[in-house]
Amino acid sequence: VQLQASGGGLVRPGGPLRLSCEASGTIFSVNNMGWYRQVAGNQRKMIAYINSNGSKRYADSVAGRFTVSRDGTKNSWYLDMTNIQAEDASVYYCTAAIATTASERQIFWGQGTLVTVSS
Questions:
Q1: Bridge-partner residues for 49, per DSSP?
Q2: Burial, 7: exposed, middle or buried (Cβ in 10 Å; 0-12, 13-18, 19+)?
Q3: Rounded-to-integer distance, Cα 113 and Cα 119, Å
Q4: Residue 84: how many CB atoms within 10 A of its CB?
Q5: How crowded is residue 83: how many other Cβ atoms within 10 Å of its Cβ?
Q6: Tens of pLDDT along 53-105?
Q7: Residue 15, CB-side half-sphere exposure with 13 Å CA sphere
Q8: Are strands 29-38 and 90-99 parallel, antiparallel or unpaired?
Q9: Fewest beta carbons within 10 Å, which of 29, 58, 84, 114?
Q10: Quick one: pLDDT at residue 73?
Q11: How far apart are CA 22 and CA 4, in angstroms?
Q12: How far is CA 20 from CA 79, 95, 104, in A?
């Protein structure tokens, strides 16, 4: 199983950006899809999660500005970022709990995509 994150880049303060993550490989089901971010020297922090029932949760720092969504038909999920601030600059990682069989489940991580905020 591989997770491919994409969509990072340079964005102006106040602007929008969409990150995407797609899981591929031998997949029975994808659950608890999420996004983390990490600045060099700091711990990786949870930003947003969406589970297989569509329930969502967000870090306080992004609630109201970021929206997590998923496309179950494509094993993909997204992070729509609006009103981006300087403190949102980071490497963003996608993650998910993926069942590879009916009885085997693991946590997988994408490779990270860099978001740079600059005017």
A1: 34, 57
A2: middle
A3: 20
A4: 20
A5: 13
A6: 899 999 999 999 999 999 978 899 999 999 999 999 999 999 999 999 999 99
A7: 15
A8: antiparallel
A9: 114
A10: 81
A11: 5
A12: 7, 11, 25
* pLDDT value of residue 64: 97
Locate 116 and state its tokens. Answer: 């740079």
Listed residue (55, 58, 30, 56) closest to 46, CA to CA: 58
Q: How far apart are CA 21 and CA 77, in angstroms?
A: 5
Tokens 């020297």, residue? 41
Tell me the per-residue pLDDT of 30-50, one tens digit each, with 9 for 90 and over. Answer: 989 999 999 989 999 999 999
Instruction: Provide the b/e sequence for 15-43 (b: ≥16 CB within 10 Å).
Output: eebebbbbbeeeeeebeebbbbbeeeeee
Provide the pLDDT for residue 98. 95
Identity at 98, one-letter amino acid code: I
Q: How far apart are CA 104 and CA 108, in angstroms?
A: 13
Closest by CA to 31, choosing from 52, 11, 13, is 52
H helix intervals, 1-119: none
